[in-house]
């Protein structure tokens, strides 16, 4: 016994038959009583909260054991320690108390199944869970299986479970040969596949997990069967809805494309003349306001043509408006063929047309106008047995970018077209089929 400096006990007359107890002994006694009463307090609190009759009996038996141990400890201390000078020593009281309390503790454990209850609960859960489970050893022999596995597996305990034979009559999702290859040659891997039972078309997910020892050696496998029919139905339903949504999206895209084309067509109709395909006067004026600001800022030269078809009213009166319309279309096509992509041809009104020519000085404008007039003179429109030839009269305004300056672009445009119109009518007055450069 550990008795440093006789702090636990010290002999009287040189023998421990008569002894006195030191400080360490009383510290130990107090500590034991603290443990006893703490244990009792915890168990009494548990008795108030536990509703299971079996657990209440376990706790009550354990409380009795603690009371027995505490009672014998107190009796031993009273008779053999505190009253030792007056009473004879009674040996074995503490040992008897330990024996009787241990009997109570053993009774609490084994009679009321403190550990069996957990095992029974685990077994009950294993048997009644909806997921089917079978446990096989490394050779494939069935060691254990629950009720949930019975609808899927016909093998019994002690029989061999052959995965190839099991899967052969079933429909599988994915590559079954790859799954079987992994099952045979990679037993340490976790595997998963899905089968369809032919008798009721139920979908079952199969998962295989290895059971390993401490050295990572294979002891067996746990194979689980989980019915995923409802999940598969939800997935299939979601796929059908996604397909329907995809088709609707395609329809919406088609409608959007059609609307885009219609909008483009409407936009084109809003800015073009339907007869000749040229831009209309409103679009021309909007563009010119913007172009004039750029020309003034960057000193860009430009020219504007204003022309009409000579004696057009006579053509309408003699050959009719259909021939007149064809003359307008044909003249616009001839002029358009002579222009650049940056030039703007617009129908100004009636038989009058205007052309905006950026980056075009006076000499270039006169040269282009001459080529246009020659091409129009050489063109003809069939009117029954006759060939209708037309000429044009043209007024030209050319601006040098270096001298261009204005405050109001709209006012400047009015003045510019007034100058072009004056030059046009001067060309008509001088005999038509000619161009006049405005001053």
Automatic annotation (TrEMBL):
Instruction: State whether keyword Transmembrane helix applies.
Output: yes
What are the record's GO terms for cellular component? plasma membrane
**Which Gene Ontology MF annotations are present?**
diguanylate cyclase activity
- Pfam name, any one: GGDEF
Q: Which UniProt keywords apply?
A: Membrane, Transmembrane, Transmembrane helix
Q: Which residues cross the membrane?
A: 24-47, 59-83, 89-110
Origin: domain of life: Bacteria
Give residue ranges for domain GGDEF. Answer: 300-439
Q: Which GO terms describe its biological process?
A: cell adhesion involved in single-species biofilm formation; negative regulation of bacterial-type flagellum-dependent cell motility
InterPro entries on file: Diguanylate_Cyclase (IPR050469), GGDEF_dom (IPR000160), Nucleotide_cyclase (IPR029787), PAS (IPR000014), PAS-like_dom_sf (IPR035965), Rev_trsase/Diguanyl_cyclase (IPR043128)
Name the PANTHER family for this protein: DIGUANYLATE CYCLASE DGCM-RELATED, REGULATORY COMPONENTS OF SENSORY TRANSDUCTION SYSTEM
For this entry, the protein name equals: Diguanylate cyclase
Q: Which organism is it from?
A: Cohnella pontilimi
